[in-house]
Design goal:
This protein has helices spanning about 35-45, 55-65, 80-90, 105-125, 135-145, 160-175, 180-185. It is an all-alpha fold and about 220 residues long.
Length: about 220
């Protein structure tokens, strides 16, 4: 993107756990074979694009990068949230929740992303991927506040799509990844070792300790 937001793009994200490596526990009692298989799958088996076409998939990635910026990561280390959303829709997996009177999950995502692109064209005369980072944030903030052209969303609510689908799924997928565990000092699944010290400011001896206060929280300001 041509322009940068000085409050976001020029301030590098700094985790309070700079030396923490959850994968360093690979052979420790923190993991059993089942846990290792799950973690390895998330690391090495990123799904191929199969549901969205190339253009819509690129749009989805741009929107997610505006919500969860990863400019501090190389392409190799970037958590590819859009790939797992595409896989979720291709396999048509559901969490069992469906609101009466709403389209299918696949249709909601298709209409929702088309609505974002329409809203961008209506306001800026260009596509979402062409906007500056600051403009992208401003547009997503409008959606979050329900400020959208209802005719472009074909029966779905822009605010509900942004919060209940796009934001919810993106954050859920992102923080299920080991790279995200490192930055928040999370030791991974509780099986088989478990977490024993659960009180305020309590830590098990093998848990991460903060080296510094976070300078910037990843995500929308």
């Amino acid at each position: 993107m041509a322009e940068t937001d000085p409050e976001v793009r020029e301030v590098p994200f700094e985790t309070p756990y700079p030396d923490y490596d959850v994968l360093g526990k690979w052979d420790s009692p923190s993991y059993n074979d089942a846990t290792r298989r799950v973690v390895a799958d998330r690391l090495h088996n990123v799904p191929e694009r199969r549901f969205f076409d190339d253009e819509t998939f690129a749009l989805l990635r741009a929107v997610i990068d505006a919500i969860l910026p990863q400019q501090d990561r190389t392409e190799r280390d970037r958590i590819k949230v859009e790939a797992w959303i595409d896989e979720m829709l291709y396999t048509n997996k559901s969490d069992g929740t469906h609101y009466a009177g709403t389209p299918s999950r696949r249709e909601v995502w298709t209409r929702g992303l088309a609505g974002i692109e329409h809203e961008t064209q209506r306001r800026h005369g260009k596509g979402f991927r062409e906007l500056s980072f600051q403009e992208q944030h401003a547009l997503l903030k409008c959606l979050d506040e329900g400020e959208a052209d209802p005719d472009a969303w074909h029966g779905i609510d822009a605010k509900s799509f942004f919060r209940g689908h796009l934001l919810k799924e993106s954050v859920k997928i992102y923080y299920a990844h080991p790279y995200a565990w490192d930055e928040m000092g999370f030791g991974g699944p509780a099986a088989p070792r478990g977490y024993l010290r659960l009180g305020p400011d309590d830590r098990d001896p093998w848990e991460a300790r903060e080296d510094r206060a976070p300078q910037k929280i990843r995500g929308l300001p």
